[in-house]
Amino acid sequence: MLLNTVDRCTDSDDEMWVYSASTLERDYPKKISSMGLPSDLHRIDAAYSFYKSKKTYLFAGNQFWRYNEAKKKMDPGFPKFIADSWTAVPDDIDAALSLTSDGHSYFFKDSHYLKMDDSTLKIVKVGEVKKDWLRC
């Protein structure tokens, strides 16, 4: 699986490294285009694995792609604009994650985050990272 079992995925220019714990996965680094992304795309802003759909979403600028974990390839019909599919999620996000333990997903941009209910796919909170996550 691309990100479901991966603790960290980093990118630099047009390459990515995938780690499981502190071990670099075999055959990495590799070009991000090897996943079916456009060869002129040089950076992924955030990668988000949604446990309910078994899909991994890759965000770059104002667009996103959806990677099918079962088929090990990009789903057809992408990229799509973030604004057209993700209500209230801003362009150029910094990070995204899903916490299966609390049924929510989180999208981070600058000093703020959005909390999405995984059942309804609605944003239920907009908060400050410093206050709510770092407790300062």
Automatic annotation (TrEMBL):
Gene3D superfamilies tied to this protein: Hemopexin-like domain (2.110.10.10)
Record has Signal as a keyword: yes
SUPFAM superfamilies reported for this sequence: Hemopexin-like domain
The Hemopexin repeat ranges on this chain: 41-89, 90-136
Parts of the chain that traverse the membrane: none
Keywords: Disulfide bond, Repeat, Signal
Family matches, as InterPro entries: Hemopexin-like_dom, Hemopexin-like_dom_sf, Hemopexin-like_repeat, Hemopexin_CS
Pfam families xrefs: Hemopexin
Entry protein name: 72 kDa type IV collagenase
Lineage: Eukaryota, Metazoa, Chordata, Craniata, Vertebrata
